[in-house]
Amino acid sequence: MTKEMLEMERDQAVTKIMATPHFYASEMSMKHFLRRRDEAFGKVKDQLLARDRTFPEIMLAAEVYYFRDMGQADLSALCIQETNLLLVEMPFAQWTKKVYQDLESLIHRQHLKLIIAHVERYHHFQKDKSIWNQVFALPVIAQFNAGCLGSWTRRRLPLKFIKEGYPVLLGSDCHNTGSRKPNLAEGRAVLEKKLGEPILDQIDDLGQRLLKDDQL
């Protein structure tokens, strides 16, 4: 399956993949997580990447589910490799002042750049939008899944973010070759149709600058 997914990504002109297995602080230690991740990547590297140089480059990272007091934890080992970019999965519930404070601490005290994973999934939980507004007033990057662009109701939020000038990234969030297959090409086609090709250039440029650690 991994081989098929890499082939699908390559066919969609993907050149870099951020491998972001889920990290749940309540379920395992960071040391155990990193060991399992590195062992899995070692197999992929030896059995696939070393044999086919046309596959996209894989950069190790994690999708870190929010946990209380994460603002005081050292999460640098979970950042996208060789960067200070941390992908954070937010609570699927009403966000609180404590959530905001933890994110603010990661940004201003630990100097991490936060990417909020699949933003489209949280909005309807926020009956009170005050914390939502405070979070996105922080210097965070909003990541939307390409799959949400296929529905006219679900695409309204990412289109709104883009039109209002928020920094936005597009992700496939692929897990397999069936129900969660690589689909960046489909999402990009929708954005190009709705907002024009310059939007794709803008998103690509942001991604490249983040990986180069340029000042944003």
Could you characterize what this model shows?
By secondary structure, this protein is an alpha/beta fold. It has a single domain (2-211), classed as TIM Barrel. The protein has helices at 2-11, 30-49, 97-108, 130-135, 156-163, 184-195, 197-211; strands at residues 16-19, 22-23, 57-60, 63-65, 85-89, 113-116, 141-145, 168-171. Strand 7, helix 5 (156-163) and strand 8 (168-171) form a beta-alpha-beta unit. The chain is globular and about 50 Å long.
Beta content comes to 5-15%
Largest sheet: 6 strands, parallel
Mean pLDDT: 96
| SSE string, helices as H and strands as E | HEEHEEEHEHEHEHH
Taken together, the total number of domains comes to 1
Number of strands: 8
CATH topology name, in short, is TIM Barrel
Tell me the overall shape.
Answer: globular
Question: Would you kindly provide a brief summary of this structure?
Answer:
The chain has 216 residues and is α/β, with parallel strands linked by helices. Helices cover 38% and strands 14% of the residues. α6 (184-195) crosses α7.
Features of this protein?
globular, two-stranded parallel ribbon, 38% helix, alpha/beta, 216 residues, TIM Barrel
Please outline the helices and strands.
Elements: H1 2-11, E1 16-19, E2 22-23, H2 30-49, E3 57-60, E4 63-65, E5 85-89, H3 97-108, E6 113-116, H4 130-135, E7 141-145, H5 156-163, E8 168-171, H6 184-195, H7 197-211
Parallel strand pairs: 1-3, 2-4, 4-5, 5-6, 6-7, 7-8
Helix pairs in contact: 6-7
